[in-house]
Each structure stands twice: as structure tokens, then as C-alpha cells.
């Protein structure tokens, strides 16, 4: 299976987690006292996201996406024998 790149041109603004996450005692779910960690805002461009952060006086850091390298493979590569590498 190959990963798609359909929605990779969207920039996302996320808040930093201010309180530690902990397991919820009754159900065992991961819980946090901070509700801002549930907020994700999507923007069409990096400039739109930066403009919003500056307009709202948020301190921000931009994380650029890692370059995507496509390694061509064929279906037959899934069944090709490769000997184990010596340790």
C-alpha cells in the first residue's frame, strides 16, 4: 500500500500542550485538563496561518514538512528474497 498525498497542501495551527496527559482511572483513556489540545485550525497557505497567529498575538513556530522521496518499487519487490545482513 502506498500513502497518498491528497491533503498535504494544508497548513495546520495547533496549540502546545500545557498540562501533562495522564491515563483516566475509570476507562483508561488518555486524559488532559487542557481543552486547547483538541483545537486544530486549517489554513490554505503558510502565510494565512502566520497572519492569523500574528493578528491574535500568538507566539508561533513554523515546522516545514520533510521532503518526500519517492522510491520506485514494483509489486514483485514484495516477494524478492534478500539474505539477512550480518550483525
What does this structure look like?
With 87 residues, the chain is an alpha+beta fold. It has one domain (1-64): Double Stranded RNA Binding Domain (2-Layer Sandwich), CATH 3.30.160. Helix content is 11%, strand content 14%. Strand 2 (22-23) and strand 3 (30-31) form a beta hairpin. It starts with 10 loop residues before the first strand and ends in a 32-residue tail after the last helix.
At the first level of CATH, what is the class? Alpha Beta
Order of helices and strands: EEEEH
Structural class by SSE content: alpha+beta
In CATH, the architecture is 2-Layer Sandwich
Q: What portion of residues is helical?
A: 10-25%
Quantity of strands, as a count: 4
Total domain modules: 1
Strand order of the largest sheet: 1-4
The chain-level mean pLDDT equals 84
- Give the overall shape, derived from the CA principal axes: flat
Characterize the largest beta sheet: strand count, sense, and whether it forms a barrel.
2 strands, antiparallel
State the low-pLDDT regions, or none: none
Q: Can you lay out the helices and strands and say which pair or pack?
A:
Elements: E1 11-14, E2 22-23, E3 30-31, E4 40-43, H1 46-55
Question: What keyword list fits this structure?
Answer:
alpha+beta; flat; single chain; Double Stranded RNA Binding Domain; 87 residues; 14% strand
Quick recap:
The protein has 87 residues and is an alpha+beta fold.
Amino acid at each position: 500500500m502506498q500513502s497518498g498525498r491528497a491533503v498535504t497542501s494544508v497548513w495546520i495551527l495547533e496549540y502546545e500542550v500545557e498540562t501533562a496527559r495522564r491515563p483516566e482511572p475509570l476507562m483508561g483513556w488518555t486524559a488532559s485538563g487542557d481543552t486547547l489540545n483538541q483545537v486544530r485550525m486549517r489554513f490554505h497557505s503558510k502565510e494565512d496561518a502566520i497572519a492569523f497567529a500574528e493578528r491574535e498575538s500568538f507566539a508561533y513556530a513554523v515546522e516545514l514538512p520533510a521532503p518526500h522521496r519517492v522510491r520506485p518499487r514494483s509489486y514483485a519487490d514484495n516477494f524478492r528474497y534478500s539474505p539477512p545482513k550480518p550483525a
